[in-house]
Amino acid sequence: xxxxxxxxxxxxxxxxxxxxxxxxxxxxxxxxxxxxxxxxxxxxxxxxxxxxxxxxxxxxxxxxxxxxxxxxxxxxxxxxxxxxxxxxxxxxxxxxxxxxxxxxxxxxxxxxxxxxxxxxxxxxxxxxxxxxxxxxxxxxxxxxxxxxxxxxxxxxxxxxxxxxxxxxxxxxxxxxxxxxxxxxxxxxxxxxxxxxxxxxxxxxxxxxxxxxxxxxxxxxxxxxxxxxxxxxxxxxxxxxxxxxxxxxxxxxxxxxxxxxxxxxxxxxxxxxxxxxxxxxxxxxxxxxxxxxxxxxxxxxxxxxxxxxxxxxxxxxxxxxxxxxxxxxxxxxxxxxxxxxxxxxxxxxxxxxxxxxxxxxxxxxxxxxxxxxxxxxxxxxxxxxxxxxxxxxxxxxxxxxxxxxxxxxxxxxxxxxxxxxxxxxxxxxxxxxxxxxxxxxxxxxxxxxxx
Length: 450
Ligand code: AMP
Prior knowledge:
Blueprint: H1 41-50, H2 57-67, E1 72-75, H3 82-96, E2 108-111, H4 115-128, E3 136-139, H5 146-154, E4 158-161, H6 163-171, E5 182-185, H7 188-193, H8 197-205, E6 212-217, H9 222-231, E7 236-239, H10 243-249, E8 250-256, H11 262-272, E9 278-281, H12 285-297, E10 302-305, H13 311-323, E11 328-331, H14 333-336, E12 346-349, H15 356-363, E13 373-379, H16 384-394, H17 409-413, H18 442-449
Parallel strand pairs: 1-6, 1-7, 2-4, 2-5, 3-4, 5-6, 8-13, 9-11, 9-12, 10-11, 12-13
The chain binds adenosine monophosphate.
């Protein structure tokens, strides 16, 4: 990954000449996809350079009102193209309303929940801004503060930040938000999950009244909606429902396997099938480490990525994955959010997620921007309850692969009672632990004995 602290001064196009809003050129090499949107030529060319032919639904719906200065309340997930939906109008505004950013007082602010996501937004600014002259910097914790202080002090058109570090810098006097013209809050639902709401409220309190505000969340949880109300004024409301279409494009498979065989099954799959660019999800950080170790020990290049890893280690893992050196990224959910890697061929749920929505988020990492994808989920006996909830959410059973070498009828027949946390069963000893969980059915017992 490029150094995310880098301040970008794109010079190639010289001084950006604002183009009237309705004169998007025909010759923008995209048919009438993006050309139908009133984006300036420099952005049109950058989109052509990226190979984007058609705006995604959220882009088509959000860009015109945002260019007209409206606030936005967007319900959309990663993978819908929401980043470009907010960046393109934001960048166009900054170019058309030309103003030198003051020292320590950015012209626009984008808040993101994780450093990966913030860094990726920074990369998108690089990409879409390649023919513009805008400056930006990305700010997050876990790394030295000095370069961030320096960038802020120079004066920035765009600051992308995670809330905690931004607040630190504000409290130390390195950033003041009274000049912010456009404010974007991305992934508000994750912010909520991660406990960032108090920090965000502090940030919002220092924004000027006159501003454009954009609010994005994957869900409409009541707390999220309440926060949005304090932020946006008379917003355009756009809701993109990616779940079903995305799920439809992904070939899903379920593998019943006993817990102790998950590693071997994963190794076999990685060896014997064409699984190349794979994200393996685990629930716990230490399991991510263990699985990555097992894969490496079996000659399959893998790297763990989770919250306990240093920024340098994560960036190295991601770079290795992007270049193809690392075949499998073993990730926890929070770390994986916002990892923007093209052409992920497979998602493997080594552990099923406890929240069914997370399943949809995870498998959506493959099949990005219209591509096909494969998702394989391991399910052992005590994950059955999670499986039931997932199938209820996606409104269909996930097809079971009984041909895989570690297929376990015991896991398949486990019932809800087995889904409760319980001491790990000893193998071979036939020992029983404690009393049977109450409500255990006959089928469950049979399943367990086998
Ligand atoms: P996002 O939802 O913003 O994380 O975007 C998901 C992915 O789709 C990113 O890799 C973008 O680079 C890509 N993308 C965004 N807009 C388009 C588009 N109009 N055409 C093709 N790819 C796109």
